[in-house]
UniProtKB/TrEMBL annotation, chain A:
Residues 18-79 form the RNA polymerase sigma-70 region domain. This is Sigma factor. Residues 176-276 form the DUF6596 domain. PANTHER family: BLL6612 PROTEIN, BLL6612 PROTEIN-RELATED. InterPro entries: DUF6596, RNA_pol_sigma70_r2, RNA_pol_sigma_r2, RNA_pol_sigma_r3/r4-like.
Length: 406, 110
């Protein structure tokens, strides 16, 4: 890549959300903001190779986008003034809640609870992440037209229902941050265990984007424990990515991973965030506990050094915050290490997870360890049938076949 | 400011209890005091409805609601709010007051 291309890529990643957010605040129209930001970047692609990268690229883009927006509005001036006035700007709550940052307003608008979850994810990746509709559609394995419609509908609802372009008021903030973090975690998880056989096992672009957006939220709301927790959780998970898929494209379980391949810098950063939350002395939420569990795993240089009793204690804490069957399933893995597979099997018996591939994969592994090969093979078959991820399927098939002929 | 319709959803014949009515009165007073109040009303049951169709000349009357469904609208508020977050809070308080699910929908901009 030439210097200019590199600059364009970097500026796009760093400045897209800022340009969109500034325009959205100024004109109160997400569509206009997005289109003008796109035009400004298109102008940069055209001009910078000849003129050179401007000294303040972000300011150049914002100014260019503003000029284009004003041109557009002048051309459309005869369009009903009232209509324009009625857009969300007039409904912006002033003064804003706790923090005044255009990008944070944009995040909260895109992750508004009145939008369907898939729409929130698509809109966030488009407006805040700057991904194209086709990239988002590809990542979530839906047709581009379907994703486009989803995003268009979400923007239409923002206008029609007057979803405010703003950070919620203090009273609503904790609940709304939870929703924002849920969207970001969903994006991360889709990247970390891509759901379709057509996709790569890991979508590093998506995990990177989720981390970048979570860093943004964490930077904007540094006192929010769960934002910190989620960032730590993502970093500690991402740190293991290089060891997670083998050269032959098979998923490698945590116990079998080459720990030397883990990203020590990400682990150090994640651990520091976990320690900061512990020092804060507040009751931790779901993401903070999950981050702490990952901190214990990544602390062990060898799987045999894993402090399972601490992990189980953390899962006990997590069950109190989130008593979902999936949490109880994961807790049982720690139980198996401490009390043996029989006890763990008893704990997961009857969990309402019959359609969840990981339930059968865990069961298969526990049954294998108790020597019940036939039942184990059946459980592997069920897990393989339900798993959508190519690397995971490959891993499960090898494990099943190691059981030998029935 | 925009106007929103808060429809109250219901799935049985019985009317609001005295306690619910009292809570609704308190909620209504709050709407008036805070400048959100536009209009509100309760509706008679769906079997009191008549569908009228005059698209092809003289009106044709059909006894009963236009849609047979388990759930129906039994009342509504029309409120004024600057944006959806305020309207959502009002809808939440309304739902709590009347002890039923509600649907929130914006009016089209004039």
């Amino acid at each position: 890549m030439t210097g200019v291309q590199e600059a364009l890529t970097r500026v796009h990643r760093e400045e897209w959300a800022r340009v969109v957010a500034t325009l959205a605040r100024r004109y109160g129209d997400l569509d206009l903001a997005e289109e003008m930001a796109a035009e400004a970047f298109a102008a940069a692609v055209e001009r910078w190779p000849a003129d050179g990268v401007p000294p303040a690229p972000g300011a150049w883009l914002t100014t260019t986008a503003h000029r284009k927006a004003i041109d557009r509005l002048r051309r459309e001036a005869r369009r009903d003034e009232k209509h324009r006035e009625a857009l969300m700007l007039s409904g912006t709550p002033e003064p804003l809640g706790v923090i005044d940052d255009d990008r944070l307003r944009l995040v909260f608008t895109c992750c508004h609870p009145a939008l369907a979850m898939e729409a929130r994810v698509g809109l966030t990746l488009r407006m805040v992440g700057g991904l194209t509709v086709s990239e988002i559609a590809h990542a979530f394995l839906v047709q581009e037209t379907a994703m486009g419609q989803r995003i268009t509908r979400a923007k239409a609802k923002i206008k029609a229902a007057r979803i405010p372009y703003g950070v919620p008021l203090r009273d609503d903030l904790p609940a709304r941050v939870t929703g924002v973090l849920a969207v970001l975690y969903l994006i991360f998880n889709e990247g970390y265990l891509a759901s379709g056989p057509g996709a790569g096992a890991v979508r590093a672009d998506l995990t990177a984007e989720a981390i970048r957006l979570t860093r943004l939220v964490h930077a904007l709301l540094p006192a929010d424990g769960e934002a910190t927790g989620l960032l730590a959780l993502m970093l500690l998970t991402e740190a293991r990515r290089p060891a997670r898929v083998s050269a032959s494209g098979e998923l490698v379980t945590l116990a079998e991973q080459d720990r030397g391949a883990w990203d020590r810098a990400l682990i150090a950063e994640g651990h520091a965030l976990v320690r900061a939350r512990l020092a804060a002395g507040e009751a931790p939420g779901r993401y903070q506990i999950l981050a702490a569990i990952n901190a214990v795993h990544t602390d062990a240089r060898d799987v045999r050094d894993t402090d399972w009793s601490q992990i189980l204690a953390l899962y006990d804490q997590l069950v109190r915050v989130d008593p979902s069957p999936i949490v109880r399933l994961n807790r049982a893995i720690a139980v198996a290490e401490l009390d043996g597979p029989e006890v763990a099997l008893a704990e997961i018996a009857g969990l309402p997870l019959a359609e969840y591939h990981a339930y059968h994969a865990v069961r298969a592994d526990l049954l294998r360890r108790t020597g019940r090969s036939t039942e184990s093979r059946e459980a592997y078959d069920r897990a393989i049938a339900l798993s959508g991820n190519t690397a995971e399927t490959a891993h499960l098939i090898r494990r099943r076949d190691q059981l030998g002929a029935p | 400011m925009a106007q929103y319709l808060i429809s109250v959803l219901h799935d049985a014949a019985e009317l609001a209890t005295d306690a619910e009515m009292a809570a609704i009165d308190v909620f209504n007073e709050g709407l008036r005091a805070d400048g959100h109040w536009v209009f509100a009303g309760g509706l008679a049951s769906p079997d009191s409805a008549t569908v009228v169709d005059a698209r092809a000349g003289g009106p044709i009357y059909t006894d009963g609601p236009y849609l047979e469904s388990k759930e129906f609208v039994i009342g509504f508020w029309i409120v004024e709010a600057p944006h959806l977050d305020v309207a959502l809070r009002l809808a939440g308080n309304g739902s709590r007051a009347c002890n039923r699910r509600v649907e929130l929908r914006p009016f089209l901009d004039a």
